[in-house]
Amino acid sequence: MIRATIGGGLVILALVFISLVVGNTEIDHNPLNWFGGVNDQGDQDLEILTLSRIPRTIALILAGISLSVAGLIMQMLVRNKFVEPATTGTVEWASLGLLLCLIFAPGLSVIIKMVVACLFALFGTGLFMLLLQRIDIRSDAIVPLVGLIYAAVIGAAIAFVADQAELMQSIWVWIQGDFSMVLQGRYELLWFAGCLGVVAYITADQFTLAGLGKNMSENLGLNYTLVFIWGILLVSVISGITVATVGVIPFLGLVVPNLVSLIVGDNLRYALPWVAVTGAALILLCDIVARLITFPYEIPIGTIMGVIGSLLFLYLLLRSEPHGQS
Amino acid sequence: MDNLELNDVRLINSGSSKRLRTYFASPPGRLAAAVAIAVLSVLLFLTLNVKAGWEFTLMFRGKKLLTLLAVAFAISVASLLFQTLTQNRILTPAIMGFDSLYMLIQTTMVFLLGSFAFSDFNVYGKWLIEVSVMTGSLCSLYLFVLYRQQQSLFVLVLVGVILGVFFHSLSALLQRMMNPTEFTVLQDALFASFNAADSHLLILSGIMIAITCLFCFRMHAVLDTVALGQPIATNLGISYKPFLLLTLALISVLVSVATALVGPVTFFGLLVVNLAYYLAGTSRHRYLIPMSVTIGVICLVAGEVILQHGFSFNTRLSILIEFIGGLFFLILVLNRRFA
Fold this sequence. Notes:
The structure holds two protein chains of two kinds.
Chain A: H1 2-21, H2 40-78, H3 90-104, H4 110-134, H5 142-164, H6 168-175, H7 190-202, H8 204-210, H9 214-219, H10 224-246, H11 252-264, H12 268-292, H13 301-320
Chain B: H1 2-13, H2 16-25, H3 27-47, H4 54-86, H5 98-113, H6 115-120, H7 123-148, H8 153-176, H9 180-190, H10 199-218, H11 220-226, H12 230-235, H13 240-262, H14 268-280, H15 285-310, H16 317-335
Keywords (chain A): Cell membrane, Membrane, Transmembrane, Transmembrane helix, Transport
Membrane topology (chain A): Multi-pass membrane protein
Subcellular location (chain A): Cell membrane
């Protein structure tokens, strides 16, 4: 366990270092020279770092942590391993909220837009839960299937509204997960999402219990409804914030908890820190790939995550099925 | 049998208006009414608001009409068969990654050939590549998942959906690595459009769709049995798995041809088939197949008429249908009208 922790820590440190160094403008590869202020080069490096590279790396880590934690909570509440906010319509509803802001009140401040996105996400998640109660779940595959179609429906609604308002292109660019616009002063709200990840850790035991199902957890003395609403609230707010600041990063919340639960199991209090660390590592890795694959240009991280995440999802899906778990 | 006699007695005892009403409540009557509406919308489509010369208008609109009809036939029959196989009313083959596979093929071709070679490329060659890659890969997917393990179809569908996401992301990745000229050429090829079909391709696709649909219709009795589910169908003497594969192959052909013709349409089939179930008044495929085709024709043709002459909507019919079909899906799920 200790060895694993140290190993994980080293991997993260290495990724953080690469994330700071890789970029269009070259900076000195020796961190000791960053703060020396010995010459102009050093000052310039420091400026690039504080304005762009450090905010970006922090934003990545915060988004990685909060998104994978949100995915894990969602999986506990729905009691299905194959869901996450981006495959259950939550993220699409948040995007729809943003689009409506863009159309009817383009001048709103970022915070208000974010609140609207969160409210839409909340409504959408609630509607999805309502849908789930109404369907007859015969196979593990039905829940993510309904979620994906539901998300696609909202996607069609977004396309319809955006097409009418001739905003197709701008909403598309905005929604696509991308950290290239993250600068100092443009990402700070993600700290709030990160805090929610910590809050989730504090209340982790409740979610573990809720994951046993309504009847069982109520027998064990849990106020199921309250925990359920609390969980949905966490997930929606995290989705709303991340969509509004950096766009949609698909599959992160789905793949990370699954990979972690293969190794450490489902007790959230043990699993959550691992989920957070793995989420941060995976998103850092994808962002580095996104920046290097067409260097000196870069590709939105949402695209890279889509390719890698869907492949991992397929692996998880086909791996789990032969045991007759459906 | 008893039922029939009762109906006959009723028919004899009632007046002619009542007889008419009974006729229109029966499956063939409902079908006849739907066909009448479809014919009417086709006529309206061809003749309404003609401004240029008749000859030109009829040529132009006729070509578009044929495209709409081909798509309506292919997508409606494919979706109906797919829902029968899966015994589930919320599924269509189109959500299983067909459209994104189409996108990926187009993108890869532009990416590998460059925009000039892509524009000059023989249309038949392009069509052949698209249809064979789509049919081939979808069939091998079914084979892989179905034979690898005794699998619920839901897993198969989910695998299809996720593959769709994968194809989609992969083509997005390739598009990001293209230069702007290539990207513009590609964008023209990607949007579902009922205007752009090539007339030779149209005839070729039309013939293929017609033959496949006819073949599907001839299987209506077997389909009725399969709709009861695998155990019952097997008990009644259907060799289930070969039939499943045959039907899935037919569905792949239909959807591939339609998609290669006009580009992706996702929720259209869902909408059409559910309306057909609701309006046909029977579960027999003898009526269901023509009914869903007719409703498909009405949706597309009447939809075009209304969009063009009724409103000056500047939206695409495909986007509108996606949206309505999507809402319809939600209502269906909430009403538990499926599975």
